[in-house]
Each structure stands twice: as C-alpha cells, then as structure tokens.
Design a protein that fits this description.
The chain is mainly α and about 110 residues long. It is about 60% helix and about 0% strand. Helix 4 runs antiparallel to helix 5.
Length: about 110
C-alpha cells in the first residue's frame, strides 16, 4: 500500500512526493531482487530507512558501487539508462532527480 506515502490527490507537490516515495521503495526492493544488500558506504537508494523521514532524506539514485552492480546484473548500457531515467523524471516533475541523471549520463559519456 502507498497509503503511508501521502495523499497524491491533495496537490501537485503531494502527488510528486507520493510518486517519489513509491519509486524509492520499488527501486530499493528491486535492488534486493538483484542481490544488492543495504549500502553502508555511501548515501544512496540502497541505504536502509526506518521511517518516512529517513526515506525522504535518501536520494533516488544509487552510489557508484551499487549502480555498477545494477549494470552488471542487468547488462545495461549506463548512459542510455541514465538518459531514460532523466526523461522519466522530467516527465513527472522530479527536477532534482532529472538534474542528477542528466549529469550522470554526461559523466559516463565523458568517461568520468
């Protein structure tokens, strides 16, 4: 249930917050399905959280160590993956996340 994530019909901001919380949980749990444990080295989506406040402070994106595990497990092309994530975020009003993924795609292309 997404009930604890807020009322998405309350406002546009509430919709985006509920959407972001839902995506964070879904992608975090998908990481576990790919065999990725909780991250203790960096602040990333694979860090554990005990409540909504902690979850809100965690980013949607993965740290370099965890994202490399996703690339390996899914045989994905990093820049194209970041481009798709940026487009999704842009289409759904997640501006900070869009900026991150756009920057990450550029860094991958530059070899950084």
């Amino acid at each position: 249930s997404i009930y604890r994530f807020g009322d998405p019909e309350k406002s546009d901001a509430a919709y985006r917050a509920t959407l972001l919380r839902s995506i964070k949980v879904a992608t975090h749990e998908t990481g576990h399905m790919l065999g990725i444990d909780h991250c203790t080295a960096h602040d990333c989506n694979m860090c554990g959280s005990n409540n909504l406040e902690e979850a809100d402070r965690s980013p949607l994106w993965l740290c370099n160590q965890c994202v490399a595990k996703v690339w390996w497990a899914t045989d994905s092309e990093p820049a194209a993956r970041f481009d798709r994530l940026a487009a999704f975020c842009r289409d759904n009003g997640l501006a900070a996340e869009e900026r991150y993924y756009t920057s990450a795609a550029a860094a991958v292309r530059a070899g950084n």
